[in-house]
Fold this protein.
Amino acid sequence: MSKQEVGPLGHVAVDDCCPGLLAAPLGEEQAVELARVFKALGDPVRLRLLSMIASREGGEICVCDLTPAFDLSQPTISHHLKQLRQAGLIDCERRGTWVYYWLLPEATDRLAGLLTRPGRPLPAETSA
Amino acid sequence: MSKQEVGPLGHVAVDDCCPGLLAAPLGEEQAVELARVFKALGDPVRLRLLSMIASREGGEICVCDLTPAFDLSQPTISHHLKQLRQAGLIDCERRGTWVYYWLLPEATDRLAGLLTRPGRPLPAETSA
């Protein structure tokens, strides 16, 4: 099958299709799908939400613990969270009153891999 | 000095200020600066330009070799290249008629590092 596989959350299984962003010219379709993920990261509120979710001890966080960190309405926060979810970066589950969010680490692993130069030591290995 | 250092091309020396996007909640200022870089990547044409520049043998590419790959005008391509340059991802130099572009690999290394989970093996090491 030559078509790209798009996951249930709309993200592409990038490592199935691409040798990496820096190793060879990206195809048009891959670029469109990957740009959607980077666009989701291209907003300060979404970056902060993602880092709060990703760094939460226990691996998940209630939306009720996210909202107070921002001077924004609950619907605005929910809209940003939806964009992160549609980009395949996080997932969520409703439990009673609240929605709980967690990172989909395979998505950030994939981006890290795509941004890693082929055959080079990775930053984590070379930093003092 | 507690202020963020912003490089000559407008990008933040992220690894001087942040433990990583996934390890701890990002500060507001860091999020603003980092979002600018991800926003630059959040466009399919810019992603394709970046991958063409990054994967070019010899490490640099003439704008005259970039433009024919796109069904876009030279000014549009130049605008996208300017956005990548302002995000600190590439740099360029005019030589005679043409402008030559190259990747600033420390910028992509930094993003890869920020997207790498603390204490986890990296994708390049675990893939078959």
Notes: Chain B touches chain A through 46 residues (CB under 8 Å). The first strand of chain B starts at residue 61 and ends at 62.
